[in-house]
Specification:
Oligomer: single chain
CATH topology: ADP-ribosylglycohydrolase fold
Radius of gyration: 18 Å
CATH architecture: Orthogonal Bundle
CATH superfamily: ADP-ribosylation/Crystallin J1
Structural class: mainly alpha
Number of strands: 0
Number of helices: 16
Length: 304
């Protein structure tokens, strides 16, 4: 019990709170920025926009400028469930996701839909393990888990990641990616730099699961919803850039599942570089209700 006081104290440090907020706003900014070019190829993006670097809206979902998709709204739904119960629990997460789906979100992934329909039918908040569930849906929404488990032992963090993931995605590669991202966010919030994230998180992930191996010189263009494609694109953009803006522009202009690569890159870059690094033109264009919800939830989750 004597070790808990310093952890609680550190969570209230303004710089950490600001980075937590930056991670959440980075998630939403990356989501909204990438949604415009989701499912486009890099060539199509270049022909239509040159370089896509502003909040345009539109895209296949015909969004308003600054409007987010399921990446952000599922994270917020999960965060509310965590705050209501003080920890990550499967059934409250499933209920929150089910309520989210009933509210008719602008988009929903097939694996997420299957998991939630099964929950409605059976009441079971954990999907069976499945080789076809290696999508990025659990990874994109993991940020509230990372914030809520700050200061906890690594295995508890990993367990909490799996609890929320298995509501819809029960797959070894999905688990590995989701856990890695949560721990990277926590490391960055604690002051770790990009080099440490590379050597202590990204490289060990690739050693355990060679599918995630990547090289900066090999560009992952048009990444699919497969979680390996997603993380390779995000890691290349993150580790081959030096600021929030260039990281996000790099990853969303690869096209493909750009709202999710943008969201994940945004949460990592936000945690790394802080709120002041997010371009004001992107923050100002973000849906005001979403911007407020992300900021409030980031602070509340960090206090847990």
């Amino acid at each position: 019990m004597t070790s808990s006081a310093p952890v609680t104290s550190s969570l209230c440090h303004p710089s950490l709170a600001q980075r937590a907020t930056a991670a959440y706003l980075g998630l939403a900014v990356g989501d909204a920025l990438g949604a415009t070019v989701e499912f486009m190829t890099p060539r199509e993006i270049a022909v239509q926009y040159g370089v896509h670097d502003r909040m345009r809206g539109g895209g296949w979902l015909n969004l308003r400028p600054g409007q987010v998709t399921d990446d952000t709204t599922m994270a917020l739904a999960l965060g509310e469930a965590i705050l209501a119960h003080g920890r990550v629990l499967a059934r409250p997460a499933a209920e929150a996701f089910d309520a989210w789906m009933r509210a008719r979100p602008v988009d929903i992934g097939n694996t997420v839909r299957r998991g939630l329909l099964r929950y409605r039918e059976t009441g079971l908040a954990e999907m069976p393990e499945c080789e076809h569930a290696a999508g990025n849906g659990a990874a994109m929404r993991v940020l509230p888990v990372a914030l809520a488990t700050l200061g906890q032992p690594e295995e508890q963090v990993r367990h909490a990641c799996r609890v929320q993931a298995h509501v819809t995605h029960h797959n070894l590669l999905s688990d590995a990616a989701t856990e890695c991202l949560a721990l990277m966010v926590q490391d960055a919030l604690g002051g770790a730099g990009k080099v440490r994230l590379l050597h202590e998180r990204a490289h060990p992930l690739a050693r355990r699961h060679p599918e995630f191996a990547f090289r900066a010189v090999r560009q992952q263009a048009n990444p699919s919803g497969y979680v390996v494609d997603t993380l390779v694109a995000v890691f290349q953009a993150l580790f081959d850039s030096d600021d929030f803006e260039s990281c996000l522009i790099d990853v969303v202009n690869r096209g493909g599942d750009a709202d999710t690569t943008g969201a994940i890159a945004g949460m990592l870059a936000g945690a790394l570089y802080g709120i002041e690094a997010i371009p004001a033109r992107w923050l100002d264009a973000l849906d005001p209700a979403i911007r407020g919800a992300c900021a409030r939830q980031a602070e509340a989750l960090a206090r847990l």
